[in-house]
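Most newcomers find our protein records easier to grasp once they have seen one. The structure tokens are whole numbers drawn from a learned vocabulary of backbone shapes. The record below serves as our worked example for the rest of this section.
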Amino acid sequence: MALTTRRRALTTLGAALVGAVALPAGQAWAGGGHRGPRPLWRAHAHNDYEHPRPLFDALDHRFGSVEADIFLVGDQLLVAHDASELDPTRTLESLYLAPLAARVKANHGSVYRGRRRSLQLLVDIKTEGSSTYLELDRHLLRYKHLFTTYAHGRVHPGPVTAVISGDRAARIPMEAQKVRRAFYDGRLSDLGSTAPASFIPLISDNWTLNFTWLGDGPFPDAERQKLRGIIGAAHARGQRVRFWATPDLAGPARDALWTELLAADVDYFNTDDLAGLEAFLDAHPSA
């Protein structure tokens, strides 16, 4: 899809929801309104919480999206990859919600100084989806001015856009809400469904379940066309696309796959290697 076509498609309602969302023009920033370095809106920090400084390492590398896995324990949302790693001091609120609120306040309304776009917070639910989401919704309400909100058929952009992934049971209470501060992470099976981009702004799926190519040798033409068809169909509906389980070890295979994703106009590059993706995207400034 041509870049101009992509930009046109993503001016729809769904484009107002995730990652590179344009917010209303804001007031001047402290310090003369100077912008910081160019954010990498298409960079997604997978398992962000496993870095030495959750959230802050990704922000230092200018990422536009971060991912936190959560477990509901009592009324607390604990952040960890596995239940065996749960630590009562590592909560979603302490690692993400409160720091983001403080940063947005200090930057007069944005995560990145002088950049009026929304950071994506992808929340991957690891416990039962319905009950965990309802508790998450109560947590997000405490920071209601921080988050992009869907209210009675309209989307109101905020500095951070929460997108809910993981256990699929979260979808039921989310769809029932007339007001919510989060959106749903769809799968390829949702592409072309009746669910609007105002509910499913993001389509994510496992690369290895849909493609055989892992960056070695030429990209099969049929798979290249399939990839571009997926992304084109999503963009036409104002949705964005992310694949997980792509090669993530530094080397020619990862570079080759990232280059194909870039050519296909994918919206998010999934990685645990913050510096590696930062270097790749900096080498492709149009990304």
User: Anything to note?
Assistant: The chain has one domain: 3-26+38-281. Helices lie at 3-9, 56-60, 92-106, 129-141, 171-176, 221-236, 252-264, 274-282. Residues 27 and 100 are 19 Å apart (CA to CA). The domain at 3-26+38-281 is CATH 3.20.20.190 (TIM Barrel).
